[in-house]
Amino acid sequence: MAEEAAIIARVLASPLEVDAAAWNALLAQQSHPTPFLRHEYLAALHESGSATPRTGWTPRFMTLWEGDTLVAACPLYLKNHSYGEYVFDWAWASAYEQHGVPYYPKAVVAVPFTPVPGTRLLARDEAMRALLVQAVCQWCEQEGVSSVHVLFASGDDVQTSAERGLKLRHTVQFHWKNVAPTLGTGVSSLPPEGALAALGRPGGGSNQFTDFDHFLASLSQDKRKKIRQERRRVAEAGVRFRWSRGADISAADWDFFYRCYERTYLEHGNPPYLTRDFFARMAAHMPEAWLLFVAERDGRPIATSLIAIGAIPSGGSSQKDSNLVAYGRYWGALERVDCLHFEACYYQPLQWCIAHGVQRFEGGAQGEHKMARALLPVQATSAHWLAHPAFAEAVERFLEREGAGVEGYLQELQARSPFKTMA
Predict the structure, then answer these.
(1) Residue 371's closest CA among 339, 308, 418, 302?
(2) Alpha-carbon span 347 to 71, nearest angstrom
(3) Parallel, antiparallel or unpaired: strands 376-386 and 167-177
């Protein structure tokens, strides 16, 4: 590494080759950590067989060292397909193929199967983050890898990647914030474009919703009526919910959850990305990161939704629920009940978040229907480097056009606030 002779780059063939304490300590220093980049999470993906060379995820973790000190690192995977990423580049791969140029293997700096924005480039400081990006791209070029894709990156990652010449690509997600809107004449309650940049420091907790009815009262009449109707249908079907968190989630509940999760994938014609062993490792090594809702009818469980919980960095030692963010992750059902999905995946989690003072609920990738449940549009960003000059130029032009479309889409969504306004 020409810029800093004292820094040594090492590419590791497994997350297990990285010291867990050193990795997690570096993660804790970042502006937008999530539980999905914890060493325990990445190790579980590997050890459970969920993200391994057999499934098309070959780990090549990039690490930078100053002596025996880990100063920068990122999860790096070589891939021979584009499944499980949620930033879609199938058209790019097709264009390469049509011109007789190999697109695979490519490299992703990402958390497998996890479209949650957050830190991807762990670094002691900005200089180390820049060296990390440089090291990844240089190594991929030397190894004949077609491209590098930093997916669902934090603001720090995006800025550094852009400064190192990577091209930015934007998409839209839908997130809920536990902040009762301040209404005024013609003022929209939607966040401004690019609001994702502030996700690591949500703020605004002084005006949180007091209960679910308070939340409903902030919505326009048609949205409020629709939610009440949907919840009533589930209740009238005899469905009741219970929740458990962390170590209180029983082995039987984990087993039932996996039955539902697996069923959902198989009904769509695909095997599940994650194995039962992965969730067993989560229960054993990261129990505090999970919240499970179980729907029951006549005393029998019929559906579940699994929510992840992560702390927002606050600069102090407080771990109160008000410093937490919730992430909608997985759901499944063994019986069909009208509106059960909305109840399990949105209304129950939002009600729990309000009761526990959780600041934000991220609904996952895509899904414009989430706006009707007051999950508002935010911009998520990835960064891309392509080794082939002509394709890099073509993709840059494509991203300019696509970016203009995403901007227009955001503006259109921002005009459709689910919250009521005061004349």
Answers:
(1) 418
(2) 42
(3) antiparallel
C-alpha distances out from residue 319 to 16, 311, 315, 349, 353, Å: 28, 7, 11, 19, 15
* Residue-wise DSSP of 40-91: HHHHHHHHTTSSSGGGTEEE-EEEEEETTEEEEEE-EEEESS-TT-SS--HH
Q: In this structure, what token pair is assigned to residue 68?
A: 């025996």
How far is CA 92 from its chain centroid? 23
Write phi, then psi, for 137 (nearest 5 degrees).
-65, -40
Q: What is the rounded distance in angstroms from the CA atom of residue 174 to the CA atom of residue 368?
A: 8
Q: Is 170 exposed, middle or buried (0-12, 13-18, 19+ CB in 10 A)?
A: buried
Q: Which among 366, 362, 358, 407 has a CA at the least distance from the CA of 118?
A: 362
For residues 178 and 355, the answer to whether their CB atoms sit within 8 Å is no
Total residue count of the chain as it appears in this document: 423
What is the SS3 assignment for 25?
helix
Residue type for position 130: A
Could you write out the DSSP letters of every residue in 330-353?
EEEESS--TTHHHIIIIIHHHHHH
86-139 residue pLDDT tens: 999 999 999 999 999 999 999 999 999 999 999 999 999 999 999 999 999 999
The C-alpha atoms of residue 93 and residue 240 are separated, in whole angstroms, by 46
Return d(Cα 348, Cα 326) in angstroms, integer. 12
* Helices (H) then strands (E): counts for the chain: 12, 15
**What's this model's pTM, rounded to 2 decimal places?**
0.91
CB hemisphere CA count around 397 (13 angstroms): 5
Contact 291, 307 (CB under 8 A): yes
Q: What number of other Cβ atoms are within 10 A of residue 415's Cβ?
A: 9
Which phi-psi region, left, alpha or beta, contains residue 194 (left: φ > 0; alpha: ψ -120 to 50)? left
- Pairing label, strands 69-74, 122-123: antiparallel
For 42-68, the pLDDT digits (tens) are: 999 999 999 999 999 999 999 999 999
Residues of the chain by 3-state class (helix, strand, coil), percent to 5: 40, 25, 35
Nearest to 191 by CA among 358, 366, 378: 378
The encoded tokens of residue 330 equal 């997985």
Residues 294, 243: Cα–Cα separation, whole Å: 6
The DSSP code for 315 is S
8 A C-beta contact, residue 282 and residue 307: no
